[in-house]
C-alpha cells in the first residue's frame, strides 16, 4: 500500500477551508456513494442548483471533485460529478510540517 504524500501548507489550508462548510461535506458524502449529475444531486441534497454549483466550483478548485460533460439521449450536455480520491493524515506533526511550507500569501490570511 502506497502512503499518501504529505500536503503542503497551502494545500492543507485550501482543503480544510473548503471542507469547513456543511453543504460541501454533504456533497462529498453524496458523491462518494454515487457519481451523479447536478440536477439529481441538488434534488437529493434538497438545495438549489445555483447553490450547489457554488459549492461544486469550490470543491473542484480544491481538487476534491471533478466533472465531465456527457451528452444525454436527447442531446443535452450534462455535467457529471465524481469525488477524486484523496487522503490526508492530520496529526500535530503533519500540521507542523505543512506550516513550514506555507507561502507568504497564505501566511498573511489569518
UniProtKB/TrEMBL annotation:
Keywords: DNA-binding, Transcription, Transcription regulation. CDD domains: HTH_ARSR. The keyword Transcription regulation applies. The keyword Transferase does not apply. Pfam families: HTH_5. InterPro entries: ArsR-like_HTH, HTH_ArsR_DNA-bd_dom, HTH_MetalResp_TranReg, WH-like_DNA-bd_sf, WH_DNA-bd_sf. GO terms for molecular function: DNA binding; DNA-binding transcription factor activity. Residues 4-98 form the HTH arsR-type domain. This is ArsR family transcriptional regulator. It comes from Streptomyces botrytidirepellens. The lineage of its organism: Bacteria, Bacillati, Actinomycetota, Actinomycetes, Kitasatosporales.
Amino acid at each position: 500500500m502506497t502512503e499518501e504524500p504529505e500536503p503542503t501548507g497551502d494545500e492543507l489550508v485550501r482543503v480544510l477551508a473548503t471542507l469547513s462548510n456543511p453543504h460541501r461535506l454533504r456533497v462529498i458524502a453524496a458523491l462518494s456513494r454515487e457519481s451523479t449529475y447536478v440536477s439529481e444531486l441538488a434534488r437529493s441534497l434538497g438545495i438549489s442548483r445555483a447553490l450547489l454549483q457554488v459549492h461544486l466550483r469550490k470543491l473542484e478548485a480544491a481538487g476534491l471533485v471533478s466533472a465531465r460533460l456527457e451528452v444525454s439521449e436527447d442531446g443535452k450536455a450534462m455535467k457529471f460529478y465524481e469525488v477524486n480520491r484523496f487522503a490526508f493524515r492530520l496529526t500535530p506533526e503533519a500540521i507542523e510540517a505543512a506550516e513550514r511550507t506555507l507561502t507568504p500569501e497564505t501566511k498573511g490570511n489569518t
